[in-house]
Amino acid sequence: GTRGIRGDMRGMRLGVLLVGLLLVSIGPRGGGAAESCPVPDAGGEDGLEESINDTLEAMGTATEKLMEDMKTLDLHLRAEAGEGGDKEAAEAAEGGGSQGRPQSGKLSPEAPRPQRVRRPREHTGSVFVPLPDGTAVMYQLDGRAGPPEPECAAIEREVQCKATHTEGLPVKNWLNKPQRFTVRMEPQPEGTTTLKGASYIDVPAHAERTYSLKFHTYVEGATEAKVTLTNDATGEYALYNVTFTATESPVLSTFQVSTVVRQGKEIEIALANPLRTTVVMKAECDNPDVVLEEEYELRALGETQCPLVYRPLLPCKAVPCQVKFSSAELGDFIYQLNLDAIPAGADRAMVFKAPLGGVAKQTFRFRHFLATGCSYTCTTAHPEVFTCEETLSAPEAGGRDGVEVELEVSFEPDAIGDLTSRLTVESDEGGEYVCILNGHGIAPKPQGPIEVAGRAEVSFKNPFTQVQSFKLAVDNDAFSVSDGVPDLAARAEVKIPVSYKAPAPGVSLKGKLTVDCPGYPPWIFYLSGTG
C-alpha cells in the first residue's frame, strides 16, 4: 500500500519513517517541513492502518531476521523537482539530494549531516520498499530545505590587545569532488581592529581543511562577526559566528636602563599609529625617577619616537617599573623598564685657602629634583675645620630641571699645610650629594694698623682645636701689653688690651704687637698710637 507522510523536518533533517521495525532516514541534506501528498486510498484511512497492522502481524517473529535482511533490500529513490523548484534542484536530487551527494542505499538510524544552501528549495520524492512476503510499501515525500545552521557552536575567544590571534575554522567538504569556498566576513571591523584571512580556500573531496582567521586590535572590547564560506558554483555555503573579546594589553617590550645617580639616561620608544590622522597619547609611569612628557603626538600612518629620561635620585638594582601610553583611538601601549642606578661620585670639589686664625668661605650649590620639598642633613668629614649648617631645607622642584639649592661652607685651618675633607648632603627622599673639600692652611698674615688712642683692644682667636697658651710682646716702649694669654680654650676669642703713652703731647708713634705660640709663626698686629 501507499501512504502520505507529514512531519516536522526542521533543523536540516528529513522525516523518519517507521515500517515494522525499519527506520528510514532519507536525504537530501537539508531541512524544512514535509508536506503530505495525496496517494491512492486503499480502503480509506482506517483500512490503510489495518492493512499495515496486518502486515506487521504477518511478519510475526520474523522481525529480527527482517532487520538483517533489510540491509540487502533495494531502495528505490525517485527524486524530482517539486513545485517552485528548478532544473538544478532536480539534477541535484537525482545525484543524491540537493547537494549532489550520492546515497548509499543503506538504511541507518543516524541523522544526516547538515545541508548548506543559499536559498530555500522544495523537493519531492518517493520511497518504494519491497517486503519479504512479496508485498511492498511506497511513500511519497515533500520537503523544503531551509538556511543552514552554523557549522559549530559560536566561537568565543578572549585575546590580548596589541597581539595577533589566529583562530582555525574547520571546513569540511561533503561532496565527492573538490570545492572552492569564497570567504566573506561581516560586518567589517572599524578603527584599529582587523579581521583577516585568505579570500578563498580549496577543500578536496570528503576532506577537511583549516581556515586561518587572524584577529588584531589595539583597543579593549568585544568584536562580533559572521564568517561565510560560499561555493560560488552551487550557491551553497557554510557559516561561523565568532566573538573576540580583547583584554588589557600585555607588556609589549622590556628595556634595561642603567645610569649614575642624578645623571639622566634618555631612551626612545617607537609607537606605531596605523590611522590616517594624528593621535595624542597620554603618558604615565609608576616610578617618579622616569621623566615623561605629559603628551606625545603620533604622526599618521607611521612610527613616532617618544623620548623619556631616567634620572634616579637613589642607588638601586634591577627595579622594575611600567610606562603606559594611552589614547581612546589606540588603547594602551605598556612597556617595562628594569632600572639600575649606580652611586654617584663627588659632584664637585672646592678649594679653600686661609691663614691660621682666619676663615675662608665658599658656597656649595646642587640641584634638587624631587617634586616635593624635603630636608637635607649636612655633614663634613672634619667638622673642626670645615663647618656648615647641620640641616638644609629644599623647596619642591618646579620642573624636570630641578631647583638650585645653596649651602655655605667655612674653612678655618688649625695647622699650616693641606687638608682634604668631604662634604655630604643627604636625604632619604632626595638622595645624596658629595663635595670634596681641599683646604690649605698658611702662616698668619700681619693685620692692622690698629689705632691706639691711649688705650685699645686687639681681637685674637685661638685657631687650634685644643687649649693653647700665647705670649705677647710689643716692639715700642710707648705701647704696653700683658705678658701673655694663658690657657686659651680651643677656638676661643679674647680681647688683648693695648696701652699707648706718647713721649710728648701730640706725638704719634708706630708699633707692632706679636703673639707667639711655640712651633708656629707669630701673629703680627701693627699699631698706630696717637696722644
Please render the helix and strand layout as text.
Layout: E1 2-4, E2 7-9, E3 16-19, E4 22-25, E5 32-34, H1 44-59, H2 63-69, E6 76-81, H3 87-94, E7 121-130, E8 136-145, E9 155-160, E10 165-172, E11 179-186, E12 194-196, E13 200-203, E14 208-216, E15 221-230, E16 237-247, E17 251-260, E18 265-273, E19 279-285, E20 290-291, E21 295-298, E22 302-310, E23 316-327, E24 331-342, E25 348-355, E26 360-368, E27 374-380, E28 386-387, E29 391-394, E30 403-411, E31 417-427, E32 431-442, E33 447-452, E34 455-461, E35 468-474, E36 479-480, E37 484-488, E38 493-500, E39 509-516, E40 523-529
Parallel strand pairs: 1-8, 9-16, 17-24, 25-32, 33-40
Antiparallel strand pairs: 2-5, 3-4, 6-7, 7-8, 10-14, 11-13, 11-15, 12-14, 15-16, 18-22, 19-21, 19-23, 20-22, 23-24, 26-30, 27-29, 27-31, 28-30, 31-32, 34-38, 35-37, 35-39, 36-38, 39-40
Summary tags:
6% helix; mainly beta; 531 residues; five-stranded mixed β-sheet; disordered N terminus
The strand order across the widest sheet is: 9-16-15-11-13
DSSP summary, beta strand count: 40
Coarse structural class: mainly beta
Proportion of residues in helical segments? under 10%
How is this structure best described in words?
- The chain has 531 residues and is mainly beta.
- Helices cover 6% and strands 53% of the residues.
- A five-stranded mixed sheet has the order 9-16-15-11-13, with no helix packed on it. Strands 17-24-23-19-21 form a five-stranded mixed sheet, with no helix packed on it.
- It is rod-shaped, with a radius of gyration of 53 Å.
- It starts with a strand and ends with a strand.
- Residues 1-119 have low confidence and may be disordered.
